[in-house]
């Protein structure tokens, strides 16, 4: 049994190559199972002026080869939080906005990001598929156009069936915004999708993920109990 000491809260924020962990900060993260991107908002207190300028410039610019152009996207933002012995990645997405303001004696840098938002806004797809193409192949093509990972597609691909079956008997065409086309194909199979940490998460409305969440072994305590020190044994 693995136990963790729940004290000494810690948090690390990464924006491109810049990592911040020793300064005061706060964050607000909204996660959803809908198509709308997950969002994050971070407030970091008293970065150096060079760090402030680095983050603010990244929110307006993107590296393309050896050049820098004003495009405003695809700069990675990550937030890792928890305790000294147990921390988890709770957000990964694209930088959307950053700015620094003065509040009293503090300089506060606000950093906003969204999970897959750049892809949802900009990605398009224009592909045709011949008769007999599996539905899962078309879904994967949409994911590739969105530049997101396949996520749990492998777990649900055998269940992706339209009224015509597991393949497009007459072929099909994808044309237009990739997120709209992905939603259209999955809805025809009775599924919905969201993007979680840059990967697809495909679910049926009102049902849990079709994945193995916990593997129980034979070394199981039949009846949980409370210990004198206030901990639980399970």
Can you tell me about this structure?
About 2% of the residues have low confidence. The chain has five helices and 17 strands. It is flat and about 65 Å long. The protein is α+β, with helices and mostly antiparallel strands and 234 residues long.
Backbone shape = flat
Largest sheet: 7 strands, antiparallel
Unreliable stretches (pLDDT < 50, length at least 5) are 68-72
What is the overall number of helices? 5
Beta-strand percentage range: 35-45%
Oligomer: single chain
Please give the radius of gyration in angstroms. 22 Å
Brief descriptors of the model:
234 residues; 7-stranded antiparallel β-sheet; 5 helices; two-stranded antiparallel ribbon; alpha+beta; 18% helix
Brief sketch in words of this structure:
The protein is an alpha+beta fold.
Q: How are the SSEs placed, and which strands pair?
A:
Blueprint: E1 9-15, E2 18-20, E3 25-30, E4 39-45, H1 49-58, E5 62-64, E6 67-69, E7 76-83, E8 86-103, E9 106-114, H2 117-122, E10 124-129, E11 133-134, H3 135-146, H4 153-156, E12 167-168, E13 172-177, H5 178-188, E14 192-196, E15 199-203, E16 225-226, E17 232-233
Helix pairs in contact: 3-5
